Amino acid sequence: MTDIKNVTVLGTGVLGSQIAFQTAFSGLSVVAYDISDEVLETARVRFAGLARTYVDDGVDGAGDGKAAEALSLVRFSSDLADAVKDADLVIEAIPEILDMKRSTYAELGRVAPEHTIFATNSSTLLPSDMKDSTGRPARFLALHFANHVWKFNTAEVMGTADTDPAVFDEVVRFASSIGMVPIPIHKEKAGYVLNSLLVPFLNAAAGLAAGGYAEPADVDKTWRIATGAPMGPFQIYDVIGLTTPYNILSHGDDRSKALAAWLKENYIDKGHLGMASGQGFYTYSA
After folding, report:
1. Global pTM value
2. Does residue 196 surpass a pLDDT of 80?
3. What superfamily would CATH give domain 194-277?
4. Which of 20, 26, 162, 268 has a beta carbon 3.0–4.6 Å from 178's, enabling a disulfide?
């Protein structure tokens, strides 16, 4: 059993919303925080869509009212101090921009209760790059979820040299309590396990398309046929959303920045942000 009962999720994008909804679906009280009431109105629509998805995907109990009940356990707030006032755990799922994360943690450290644990869902940044900003490095670590958390339910737990082992163990128990499979990472590794494998794969695919070697659909077709995988890399891009890969690539080496520019010019600037926007590398119906 976990002692964590009240959870605040910072960021209501694709993955932040999933983390918050899955936590509420597991019976915990959740506050979903974002920077404005306008953004939160979009989040309310996204949460309602998740409730329908859980029913459609046959998640255990969802069709018996559990998905609707989860919605009632989520409170929305655009006031950070209000959002975290009762939090046992804050999970940060804001954009992959280090300065933004650091400034958020600096403010969070001032307003959150002393007992609150902070966890970053960062896909690629090391928690040690942010720990000093928190004001409580012993109660800070990384907790990384995969997209579509109700199906692909890994939760990678990775501390820093300063993380209290008791805090690490508590977050492992929390992950189990919300239906995840905890994956303890024994020392810091940018990208954890999942993205250490996934990011080079996606970058290789982008290089093939951006370099004019093959169309995205044909890259995907090759991967699916040759490996038996259910999705190709560009289908995965669309599920993730193109904004996160763009942010990661923008802060990489020259090759990465060139791929970021290709994504921006050909897709992001046209509003083709992935499945959530209705169009990315592929077009999706409502």
Report:
1. 0.84
2. yes
3. N-(1-d-carboxylethyl)-l-norvaline Dehydrogenase; domain 2 (1.10.1040.10)
4. 26
